[in-house]
Every structure is written in structure tokens, then in C-alpha cells.
Amino acid sequence: MHTDILDLYPPPFDIEADMLFVAAWAAAGPLVERFPEQPFLSIAGRVPLALWFSRVRSLSYGEPDEGSVLDERSGFGYRELNIVALLRRRAIFVPGIYATSGLSQRLGHRYGMPKREVEMWFRVLEGRIESAASFGRGPTEVSASLLASGRILAKPFDQAAPWWTWPARFPSGESVRARILRFPRAQLARIHGVLRLDEPWLAEPARLWPLGIFVPGFVMRLPPPSSWAEG
To answer: CA 138, CA 123: separation in Å to the nearest integer?
Structure first.
């Protein structure tokens, strides 16, 4: 008998991670051709993409007052690259997620997420962050030089927590909204890097925009997927 992964690790999930948020332009044509039902925000034939390179530190599952935690001490920590495209409404579309954790992929698939396995590393150095994910066309890579402490920039976001994100839509037709629980710092970063993928919706490598934001200690909660019912 097949065991539902959510029976072993029941939602909601609290995910703690260090995240580097960056952006890039992508040609609208391949995205529209691959996902014609999505109302992409297109500017002069290009769609703005948001990406985040992350080092996931822990995953808490079950109800917050009685749940369990998987973290780096138990060997759980992993790396992940998320890519989202902006839509002409208060929602985002997620064409690709790439993670080094098999468990994360299985959980993500239950939400309808397009999670795939990838080889990836993420390093926080003195005043710098470096990360790369390996793909057939070459690596997606980023180098970030951190600016200031980030506490002032993060303050309004952290004080407003908890708050809900816009709905994230997936190619499967499923969607989810995350609840942001902690946003302790938001350091501006000078960015150098390139987005390369083995995906038909990204025809050419895309240069990353020169500014990004690093958010260490970011915590968000994923509610149960709409298709999951207890018992």
C-alpha cells in the first residue's frame, strides 16, 4: 500500500532558510508558447523573473505546538533555486524549482510544485554570498557583495509579520500561498551572475540584475495543499 508522504510529514510546514533574492529578464515568446494560459506581465517583449537562491536550514512539520523538526543537525539541510515570473494580477507563476533534497522534492510534488533534482551549493562568506546550480547548458551562478546590516530595510516587513504572499501558481494547475513569519534582515547586495537552464521556456541565458536582497533567517509557513485532507 502506498504511503502518502504527507502522512509521514503532515503540514503545515515552517521552513527556515537564508535566501538571496535576485531578478532577471526573460524573453516573453518562449514563456507564452510553453504556458499560453498564463497572463504574463510583458514589457517590451520581456518578462521580469524573480529568483531566490537558498540554504534551507530546517523544516518543522505538524501543528506548531506539537510538531517535529528536521534540521541541519539531523542532516536535513539542503539547497534550492526557485524561479517565478510576474503576472498581470496579484499572483506569480512558478515554472521551475530545483532542490538538492529528495524529501523536499516529494513534499513539493504533493503541492503540484515543479521541483526537480539539482546539484547546487550555497556559501556565505565574509560580506559575500556565492551560489551555483549545475545544468546542462552550464551553471546558473551568482556572486553577491553585501551592503549594510539590513535591519532598517527589514523592519517594516518583520513588524508586519505574519503576512501572506501572493498566490503562487504551478504548471500543474495547483497553487499555494505562503505565510511569512520572520523577516529579520534584508541586506542589499551588489549582484553578478547569470541564469542558465535546460528549459524550453528560457531560450537564452539571462544576466541577473545588478541589485539583490539577502534575507538570512527567513521563515515561512506552507499550509496543507488543497488536495490533502486529514484522515
So the answer is: 19
- Cα 55–56–57 angle (5° rounding)? 110
Say how far apart CA 172 and CA 30 lie, in whole Å: 18
Write down the residue that cell numbers 495547483 correspond to: 174
| Separation between Cα atoms, residue 41 and residue 130, nearest integer Å | 29
Query: Rounded CA gap, 118 and 102, in Å?
Result: 10
d(Cα 176, Cα 228) in Å, to the nearest integer? Answer: 12
Helix (H) or strand (E) holding 193: strand 187-195
Block mean pLDDT (10 aa), the chain, length 231? 86 97 98 98 97 97 88 88 96 98 96 97 95 93 90 81 95 97 94 96 96 96 80 42
